[in-house]
Amino acid sequence: MEKKLYICIVVALVCMVTSCSKFLDTVPKDTITNLNYYETEQQLNSALAGVFQTLTKIYAHSFQGVMSLDGDEGFYNRSAQNTGITVNLVTTSENNVTTVWTALYSGIERANLLLANINKPTMSEANRAVIKGEALFLRSYFYFLLVSYWGDVPLLLEPTSSVAQTNNPRTPSKEVYEQIIKDMTEAESLVPDVRQVTNAGHINKSAVRGLLARVCLYMAGDPVKDVSKYEMAKIWAKKVIDDGFHSLNPDYRQVFINMSQDKYDLKESIWEVEFYGYSTDGFNATGKVGIHYGISHGGQDPNHGYSFGYVAITPKLYFSYSKGDLRRDWTISTYTLSSTNPATKTYLPIYPTAMQASQRHVAKWKREYETVYPKEQGGNSVNYPLLRYADVLLMYAEAVASQNGTVPDQDVLDQTVNQVRRRAFGNLLPNRELIDTITISTAGSGYTSAPAVTISGGGGAGGAAVATVATSGTRALTAIYLENRGGNYNSTPTITIGESWMPNVSYTAGKQVYNANKLYTVTTAGTTTSTPPTQTSGASAAATTGAVFTYAGVQAKATITLTNLSDFKGDVKTIGFADYAKFMEFLKAERSRELAFEAMRKRDLVRWGDYYRVMKQIALDFAPLGSRAFGGKAGVNTTERDVLWPIPDAETTVNKAIGQNFGW
């Protein structure tokens, strides 16, 4: 309800801001004025909503399933695509690059107008401070995206006085970063504490502090290399940690289920882009989370919804997860969906080849969990994370390590990386284990549909699996697939396939139950007596068994093997790394495992100075994969210039002072 109310207000306010453009028809074309608009608190909030709208615009498409492909986690899953940003063959007229550039500077202009008029209305000073803080932060965030994707960019801190004011030279990246830090620091003193907000769409102190840590890490890395900023990154990340409010959701999966179900979890997901409704509801506030990034489905089953399946994962990402890491089988699809209603799931091998791994989709946001109907192709209400607490923990560890070029001590690792790792492995207790594999020992026969699979005992919990059945022949089980490895088992749990016959239970016709290793189908509904069916052919007598049970075949059985993680519970030990370089190698991979497809990977690779080398290796990884070799196109096309995007033609045509980035 909170999300619905907030978004409706934002959409209404944006409409108010947009309507102001009508006034421009009454003034000279070379003049921009505030038009006596910022006269009330409501009008300030309307203007602020217009600034927020920039996030909706860029993350609804360009950063979702398109631009965040340009790293080593995923690739555009269309073999015929040979040009454009999805395969890293960009031109100065690339539409997605132009769209983001234009949207960001439009958002900056809106923020500048708001800030220039922030003191006009008579209103509560406390409310004025919050609006100013959010506007300052958003403008800074837009500049952060600009400087990290384009390098030196024009730094405009006042409203544009004339449409003829087009020749704006670029400001060196270091100065842009310094302004970002200055403005974000001021914003941090103005926006409310995280405990005072009710949703992750508005800006809170934790969001500002976490982004300041990110900004400082970027500034410390390539190309600016101001290593003094590692200390600032450490300070800002530690403020979030020491606040005491934030913690990781115990279940990694639930973080993204919450987003799909329009639920907020500010303890973990600190700042999100807000989306609302569906594509034909008239609000135009939808995104594409799960539609672009998702398990391919044509939308025949309305409960699964349409997904283009644009993004497949790289084998590198799949195989980077250690045995027992629960994040892998949530982030990466473990099944395909049929083009039917209802859709059926075909589960994929747990231990795939590189070719098989490259055929899997991103599955972090599964549309089956969405609660807003209809689940349309054009847009949905699922929010997109911009800052999670797990990221803050990893940033702090990186800042501590990089400041002195040493492996963090064990206390720091336990406070940061090991929190993330322990959750990834189901918060495994000492000397406890996870389910590794399920093996069918008896395939059974006579199943009319896939039976339920129950995992119980063993001192642990959470194990879950599903079975598939042959549609012809003996109708035996064809496979059992793990959906959840569970955790904390101290002995092998029991796996039960199907439902046991029970006395004094009312059964409907068609129900299948087992008794004494035999499978029966209820052919006449009724309530059971205390006598179970035991025959090996034909039907039981109603007078004896109550409901009539007809022999169907043999009950299927399976066994479980636990994975031995008693010596590796996800924890990272200081002694496990020979030096700082080895620790950073681990941390770089850990950021990808935890934050995959959250639109940060390329910029991480760039600031570490790894982008060109990593992308060329991706090309080599895909080269031997035959029909899937196209997944390496982005790597093949990568050149040294691709660490930055080109200044769009739309800008260089009118701005003669801006120049162009290297190589473009």
UniProtKB/TrEMBL annotation:
Signal peptide feature range: 1-23
SUPFAM superfamilies: TPR-like
Highest taxon of source: Bacteria
Keywords, comma-separated and alphabetical: Cell outer membrane, Membrane, Signal
Localization annotation: Cell outer membrane
All copies of domain SusD-like N-terminal, residue ranges: 22-217
Domain RagB/SusD, chain residue ranges per copy: 353-431, 580-664
Principal subcellular localisation of the protein: membrane
Family: Belongs to the SusD family.
Official protein name in the record: RagB/SusD family nutrient uptake outer membrane protein
Organism of this sequence: Paradesertivirga mongoliensis
